[in-house]
Design goal:
Layout (H helix, E strand, L loop, with lengths): L2 H18 L2 E7 L4 E2 L3 E10 L2 E2 L4 E5 L5 E5 L3 E5 L4 E11 L2 E11 L9 E2 L11 E4 L5 E4 L4 E10 L5 E7 L14 E10 L5 E6 L5 E5 L7 E2 L8 E6 L16 E2 L2 E3 L15 E9 L6 E10 L9 E4 L1 E7 L11 E4 L5 E11 L4 E10 L4 E4 L2 E3 L2 E7 L6 E5 L13 E4 L4 E10 L5 E11 L4 E3 L4 E2 L13 E3 L1 E10 L4 E5 L2 H6 L15 E11 L4 E10 L2
Parallel strand pairs: 2-9, 18-20, 19-21, 30-35, 37-42
Antiparallel strand pairs: 1-3, 3-4, 3-7, 5-6, 5-8, 8-9, 10-11, 11-26, 12-24, 13-23, 14-22, 15-19, 15-23, 16-17, 16-22, 25-27, 27-28, 29-31, 31-33, 32-34, 34-35, 36-38, 39-40, 39-41, 41-42
């Protein structure tokens, strides 16, 4: 072969590579598109004519609201924190060369464990057993991308333009809008005090746009600004009304419904279907304002790919936790907690993406318990006991003083003489015989005797003032008292403290005769609860 022919062949080969070289990017990893809610590594590969390219600016969009960019950022890690379908997009750009790639991911859905429960819903006794029922239901996800609902109404005025973005990734890269009929519905829900101030546009991913509603038209309302009520307004290929700006009269609300676009959907022919379609609302006047509540963008069903949906199912049921039995194929088990307090029991399953999922149930083991009121005081102490054990059905009280035991739920008991510390033992028993005990100590004391000197004069004349000669005495085991006239005649005898506290009314005992005015003498003989004898004497002047 001559050198001339070789040169021509080499030149032709070079021209072929230059003419047909293509800048392209694709995502080569991960291979498995069914993953758990976890960190996933993505790898992009950019070539030009089959030759790897460096110095490329990569922009990753993970379809969950997060983006990341960087030069030569061909490998990234991303944590998916919720389940569902995600179409990861990477854009590659170097100088004037651009391309993008899509990678569909199915992230394990959070399992629905509704109905998983324990037979013991409240507190239980240590040693009791609770049944565990594990239920997990299949969960289905489907792709929907035709409506944006604002978490809060978005303000629209001359200082703030509203945009709602619909990021489509379900089409092939070569798919473009071929006819007006490819768009089914554009909608927006809003209220505004003057629609003539608004311009509403639709932008396609390539940046081309059409006007849905232009500035101008009658001074009408979108929705009802008086009570902040928003209405839905639509643009379709078969509208019920003309353009919004052609509707009259002024001063009323524009009715909900479908309207004619100012510029045809057909003007967007050739726009790529994948990418960001944007509904934009602009206000050019400062006097009026309003709010957007929601926006809708929907392609014609005829051009949509097959519905994307997937379902997670579950297997390998296992209960785990202290004192748990083997799990039966239907997801049931039993649990006998081994300590008091809260015990966690996990119901573990594995979905069809090989992802573990679980939910927890907590069994509360509470001790026997009761309250006592009061817990200390002088003998003849009346104590009220109250059971506070929720799981108990039978009760046994040992009051610690040798008295009969009680089976009441919340008894009352009187601690009589003598004093001491009494340990109350309470036994609570559940319906299945499981029991537990609790104790409280009751301190019973002997009070000190009280004898306060009585007044030395009284006047039992019935005027309601100082009509009795009373003794101020307390806490004696035995008590006697006598009152004598100055001639030694007994006029009053007390045999108990209560009688002494009731006092002398100035009458001679065992008669209804009034004692004569004068001086009388009293004598007291008592024994306190410590066995000490007490003797008191004194005098009192009786006046009439």
């Amino acid at each position: 072969m001559t050198k001339k022919r070789i040169f021509i062949l080499v030149l032709l080969f070079h021209i072929h590579n230059v003419l047909f070289a293509q800048f392209s990017v694709n995502i080569t990893a991960p291979v498995n598109t069914d993953v758990c809610q976890d960190t996933v590594t993505f790898i992009a590969n950019t070539t030009n004519g089959g030759v790897p390219v460096s110095g490329v600016l990569y922009t990753w969009n993970f379809d969950d609201g997060t983006k990341i960019s960087g030069t030569d950022l061909d490998t990234v890690k991303h944590l998916f924190i919720k389940g569902g379908g995600f179409i990861v997009r990477v854009d590659a750009e170097k100088v004037s060369d651009k391309d993008y790639a899509l990678h569909k991911m199915q992230v394990s859905l959070t399992a629905n464990f509704d109905g998983t429960e324990a037979t013991v819903q409240e507190a239980m006794c240590l040693g009791q057993t609770s049944g565990l029922t594990g239920i997990v239901k299949p969960v289905t996800w489907e792709y929907k991308k035709d409506k944006n609902i604002e978490q809060n109404p978005e303000l629209v005025d001359d200082t703030k333009t509203y945009s709602s973005i619909f990021d489509y990734r379900i089409f092939s890269k070569a798919d473009v809008l071929s006819a007006a009929s490819d768009i089914d519905t554009i909608g927006i829900k809003l209220e505004h005090s003057n629609l003539s101030n608004l311009k509403i546009e639709l932008f396609c991913p390539s940046g081309n746009s059409i006007i849905l509603k232009d500035f101008g038209g009658a001074n009408k309302y979108f929705g009802n600004p008086d009570n902040s009520t928003a209405y839905w307004y639509y643009w379709t290929n078969n509208p019920d009304n003309g353009t919004i700006n052609s509707i009259t009269p002024s001063g009323v609300s524009m009715p909900e419904g479908s309207y004619t676009t100012e510029q045809s959907f057909a003007n967007l022919a050739g726009c790529p279907l994948n990418g960001e379609w944007i509904i934009k609302v602009t206000d050019n006047q400062s006097l009026d304002s309003g709010y957007v509540y929601s926006a809708r963008f929907k392609f014609n069903n005829a051009i949509l790919p097959a519905q994307w949906t997937f379902t997670n199912t579950y297997s390998q049921y296992v209960w785990s936790g202290p004192g748990v039995s083997n799990t039966l194929p239907d997801g049931t088990a039993s649990a006998t907690p081994i300590t008091k307090g809260s015990s966690e029991y996990k119901f573990n399953v594995t979905d069809n993406f090989s992802c573990p999922q679980d939910t927890s149930i907590f069994l509360q083991v509470t001790p026997a318990s009761f309250t006592a009121n009061p817990t200390e005081g002088p003998f003849e102490l009346e104590v009220s006991f109250e059971n506070t054990t929720s799981w108990a059905n039978d009760y046994l009280w040992d009051f610690g003083d040798g008295s009969d035991k009680s089976t009441e739920e919340s008894p009352t008991h009187i601690y009589t003489y003598p004093d001491g510390r009494y340990k109350v033992l309470f036994t609570a028993t559940a319906f299945d015989g499981c029991y537990d005990t609790d104790t409280i100590t009751i301190d019973v004391t002997i009070p000190e005797a009280v004898f306060n000197e009585p007044p030395n004069v009284f006047s039992p004349n019935g005027d309601g003032f100082n009509d009795f000669f009373n003794l101020d005495v307390e806490h004696f085991a035995s008590f006697e008292g006598w009152i004598y006239s100055r001639w030694g005649k007994l006029v009053k005898k007390w045999n108990t403290i209560d009688e002494a506290k009731n006092g002398w009314d100035g009458k001679i005992q065992d008669s209804n005769r009034d004692a004569a005015p004068g001086v009388y003498y009293f004598y007291i003989k008592a024994v306190d609860y410590h066995g000490q004898e007490v003797f008191k004497k004194g005098s009192v002047q009786l006046f009439r």
